């Protein structure tokens, strides 16, 4: 039982949320490359969809992703689809700072007005950008949550990292977000270890959205949720696109989710982008053989 | 700082003799060790609140009994210095007496005192004297656990990363959870503070009562953790701000109008002293301050 009385719902928004220009490019990535291993001069030649592998035949390095470039405007959503091991999650992890990319640039509208490369910023600056301007939903809730502290505390951590310093405001914001995720306020002070997998995932989404970030990265956010909750979560994401001008990158296996949320989609295979464009175009008229296979397997 | 190696002393030198132990360097530590400790101190002063690793050496007292503070003291002390050593406010505890004797035996030209205002170096375990300190005094704290983030993170590699990136969300969440569960912040001794607007630091287990006295203090504070091999510092006139919420502000101990049974003070940090009949009375923790007040009032 909470020692604090329930407070009126109030969304405290960051000042920069209101000033975001819907037409601005919120996130721009160019030639992102990440690898596991030392790398050699032949790595690029010997990997990719034409070789059906992302392991360099000469030095054994795994090219997790290479030559990945894209841009997302504020309030828009980019989808990334592709088979397991195609580098989708690696792209998100590089952007969020969980993984150091081997090359490429990323610029964020809210960081130095998009003129500086986030990848070469100091660790302290990257952490600050991540705490203030980014949110991430991991595929596995245990990666994104501290299961021992309360659900409210998990959401609060993001707010506290972004320098919110009033407990009543933090609780109001956390309670509001959790309620929108269909987690009642009465369970706000329960640790997520006592929650079902679906509930944990919803806590994660609430956490990612907590401080009104400019960019939210969602890795398989609806996998493991039942269909009715999925619909609720997707509704919320759609609403956030409209109201808060958040740019999103959605990684999903579920082409239905991609079709609903994403104006543009990128298809990855063996660490490379094989096709990108408008979602409708890609799903209706796939060009690359892999995309054709993907779309036909769903429709079959 | 004296380079001389002390000689001319009988092997069984005891306190009653005015001389010192033979064969030992001035102030027990050899010059190179003192130099390395001083280097760590200089770095600590340059980066307020940052824990500087140092090679904690062996001493004739066990680690965990004030060896960090003692190494700092021995590295700084020289002829003309006046040393005061207190243990929980007491000049007469075994630990304080032993440390004072070691300095008396090995550092000729150093006086020891119980009077706060006479001291140039005050080595302390867990208290700052009640008497106002001035700019030419140095406080040396004995620190058992220098890492304020240890409560939320076990791994040293991770806490160092968190300090480096100013990633303090998790320690804030611990305070938030405290408020949610207990309606207030329950931390007492070793209350976490932000030093110079950058590093989160534990001010050794001094009571909350003493924490505000570090803020913009005229004196230099040096913290030595011998077992954990860390030295850190708060230079004079540095901001030291306790972690707290705007709606749950930091508060010092409240003795609810109680006063010292011996000197009558109601404006000092009080401790409970058990009596032979099973009852207890409150008494000043700082005994030299209490003594001085009683002398003032002709009660001694």
From the structure above, extract its key features.
heterodimer, A: 6-stranded mixed sheet, 12 helices, disordered N terminus, B: 300 residues, alpha/beta, Rossmann fold, 7-stranded mixed sheet, 24% helix, globular
Detailed description of the structure:
The complex is a heterodimer of chains A (300) and B (300). Helices cover 38% and strands 21% of the residues of chain A. Chain A is built from twelve helices and nine strands. In chain A, strands 5-6-7-3-8-9 form a six-stranded mixed beta sheet, sandwiched between helices. The model of chain A is unreliable at 1-19 (pLDDT under 50). Chain B is of the alpha/beta class and 300 residues long. Chain B has two domains: 12-146 and 199-242, Rossmann fold; 255-300, no CATH class. In chain B, 24% of the residues lie in helices and 17% in strands. Chain B has helices at 31-46, 67-76, 94-106, 156-164, 169-182, 287-296, and strands spanning 52-53, 82-87, 111-112, 121-125, 138-142, 193-195, 199-201, 220-225, 230-234, 240-242, 270-274, 280-284. In chain B, helix 1 (31-46) packs across helix 2 (67-76). Chain B is globular, with a radius of gyration of 20 Å.
CATH superfamily of the largest domain in chain B: Bacterial phosphonate metabolism protein PhnH
Name the average pLDDT of chain B.
91
**Main sheet specs of chain B:** 7 strands, mixed
Number of helices of chain A: 12
Shape of chain B: globular
What is the element layout, followed by pairings?
The complex is a heterodimer of chains A (300) and B (300).
Chain A: H1 15-19, E1 25-36, H2 43-46, E2 62-73, E3 77-82, H3 88-96, E4 103-108, H4 123-133, E5 134-137, H5 141-144, H6 151-161, H7 167-180, H8 197-209, E6 215-219, H9 227-244, E7 247-251, H10 255-261, E8 264-269, E9 272-278, H11 279-284, H12 289-299
Parallel strand pairs in A: 3-7, 3-8, 5-6, 6-7
Antiparallel strand pairs in A: 1-2, 1-4, 8-9
Helix pairs in contact in A: 6-7, 6-8, 7-8
Chain B: H1 31-46, E1 52-53, H2 67-76, E2 82-87, H3 94-106, E3 111-112, E4 121-125, E5 138-142, H4 156-164, H5 169-182, E6 193-195, E7 199-201, E8 220-225, E9 230-234, E10 240-242, E11 270-274, E12 280-284, H6 287-296
Parallel strand pairs in B: 2-3, 2-4, 4-5, 5-8
Antiparallel strand pairs in B: 1-9, 6-7, 6-10, 8-9, 11-12
Helix pairs in contact in B: 1-2
